[in-house]
Structure formats: structure tokens, C-alpha cells
Amino acid sequence: MDDEGVSYEHALGEAQELGIAETDPTADVDGIDTAAKIVILANSLFGMDVGYEDVDVTGITKITPEAFKLAKEGDHTIKLIGEVRDGVLKVAPKMVQKNHPLNIGGAFNLASLQTELAGRITIGGVGAGSIETASAILSDLLWIEQALGTSQ
């Protein structure tokens, strides 16, 4: 939407054609997938005991090309951001400066952690597509097999 100034529906259709968005994109566009990811991070990295119901979630379906145009005029874009801050979990579209590390494109996922000693640590990788999904499933199956000790 940002790069081409097209509508949400048009951008979603293109993403579905490219295999980046699911046939039913609800989990992605409503922020459900992002919320699930920050719940996992909050519990595993920050020792929290939270679930999806603890996340304030707003998706991207209401963002207009005009909103992107206004953001662009201020050298920003709009990204769906999942955040854990001071025990509060939130997913919502946010303005991000064009030169900020969170301004990523395509099917790339990113996690950025602010630490006291090392400063900001940012990691990322491809997060959508048939090959990436197959890789994740295979990795999970191998982990389960190893955990159960059922090598064959």
C-alpha cells in the first residue's frame, strides 16, 4: 500500500497471488498472528504468564492509501507493530520513520529488543511463503521427534 499507493484490497490481492498472504488472511490482517508471536516472546523472553486475551489488538484493515500518503509526507510509513512494554502487550498499526530498522518490507519479520547492557538488538528473517512454512513445519516435526525420542 505504501510503495504503490493502492487500496488495502488491491495490496491484499497481490500478496495472495504472490503466496505471501493466506487465502484467509484474517490472522495476519487482524493482528492475530502478531499477537500470538508477542505472547510467545513475552512468555519465553520476559518470563511473563500471558495469553492472547492479554493483548490489545488492532489490525490493518482500516488503513487507507491517504493515511500512507500523509505518513510519507512526514518521511514515515505505517507498519503493524507488536509491542511488549512495561508488562503491556499491544498490536497496532504505528507510524515508523522511513530510515528506522522496523521499516521492513515484504514477508520479512523482525524482532527488536532494547536491552540495558547491549542496547538495541534486532533480528529478522523471512516469515511467509510456502518454502518458509514448509521449513518451519519440518523443523517443528524434527523437534517433536527428538523430544519424544522416537527416531526411526
List strands and helices in order, with pairings.
Layout: H1 8-17, H2 26-29, H3 32-46, E1 55-57, H4 65-73, E2 76-85, E3 88-97, E4 108-115, E5 119-126, H5 130-148
Parallel strand pairs: 1-3
Antiparallel strand pairs: 2-3, 4-5
3D structure, described in words:
This protein is α+β, with helices and mostly antiparallel strands and 152 residues long. It has one domain (8-123): Dihydrodipicolinate Reductase, domain 2, CATH 3.30.360. The chain contains 5 helices and 5 strands. It has helices spanning 8-17, 26-29, 32-46, 65-73, 130-148, and strands at 55-57, 76-85, 88-97, 108-115, 119-126. Strands 1-3-2 form a 3-stranded mixed sheet. A two-stranded antiparallel sheet has the order 4-5. The chain is globular and about 55 Å long.
Give a short synopsis of this structure.
The chain is 38% helix and 26% strand. By secondary structure, it is α+β, with helices and mostly antiparallel strands.
CATH class: Alpha Beta
> Roughly how much helix do the residues carry, as a percent range?
25-40%
Give the distance, in angstroms, between the N- and C-terminal Cα atoms.
48 Å
CATH superfamily membership: Dihydrodipicolinate Reductase, domain 2
Largest sheet: 3 strands, mixed
Strand content: 25-35%
Sum up the structure in keywords.
single chain; 152 residues; alpha+beta; Dihydrodipicolinate Reductase, domain 2; three-stranded mixed sheet; two-stranded antiparallel ribbon; 5 helices; 5 strands; globular
